[in-house]
Amino acid sequence: MNTREKKLVWLAGIMLVVFVVWLAAWRPLTQQRLTLSSSVTQLNDDLPWMRAAAAEIQRLGDAAQPVSRGGQSLLALAESSARGAGLGQSWRRAEPGAGGELRVWLENAPFDAMLRWLIVLQKRYSVSVAEASIDQAGIAGVVNVRLLLAEPLGE
Question: What is the three-class DSSP state of 56?
Answer without folding.
Answer: helix
